[in-house]
Amino acid sequence: MSKPIVGISGSIVAETDAAFAGYERAYANDDYVDSVIQNGGVPYIIPVNSEEEIIREQVAHIDALILSGGQDVCPQFYGEEPHKLLGRTSLRRDKFDFKLLQLALKKDIPILGICRGMQVINVYFGGTLYQDLSLAPGSYIKHNQVTDWQVPSHYVKLQKGTKLFDIFQCEELEVNSFHHQVVHEVAPSFKVTARAKDGVIEALESQDYKFLLTVQWHPEMLHRTEKQMNKVFARLIAEARTNK
Ligand SMILES: [Mn+2]
């Protein structure tokens, strides 16, 4: 049986090396690629572009989608002015991610949103974000860890009776944390599936779509050191296989 093709939303990085300073490169972090391979899928990085017809063709070729991490979502998409603590945004990438998501939903393939990907999905479905953690009442945990990325730093509590709980089969999970924004209002038709101990929302899932899950942490960065993190990729790929 052929392996499912897992699309990974790409990003753009401007080269800092002097000879090509500012030169744009299309990329995705290699950990997404390896997480897909280690769990039985075939990874394809989907480059950012603004052509709807091209994005439609890109989606036509994938069996599952990972919306990857990255910049803050432009607050205009949830009706807010940019707060002074807003981080770097990319309007080009927002537009691409929204179109990619729209077309992937139409095809009804399994989707996993990671970090920025979770925020993109929440905003797409009508939710909002705190533009910075300091604006989230009660938050006291460091969610932007300055330790190694493959080391977990805080706990999340999983909600029973959710797909996420079904995947991990435990009530508490140690995760890494590289975000300074968090979900504020949860999009209608989504439910919270995990929270940090300070109440910060760490995972969501759709109640309408068959498999539309989001996590605020980075399971791909942990997949070698914290073996259970592979489970979320394994499930995404298993869903893609039954969908094929
Ligand atoms: Mn966190």
From TrEMBL:
Superkingdom of the source species: Bacteria
A Pfam family reported for this protein in Swiss-Prot or TrEMBL: Peptidase_C26
GO MF term set: hydrolase activity
Keywords recorded for this protein, A-Z: Hydrolase
SUPFAM superfamilies the record matches: Class I glutamine amidotransferase-like
Name of the protein: Gamma-glutamyl-gamma-aminobutyrate hydrolase family protein
Annotated source species: Amygdalobacter indicium
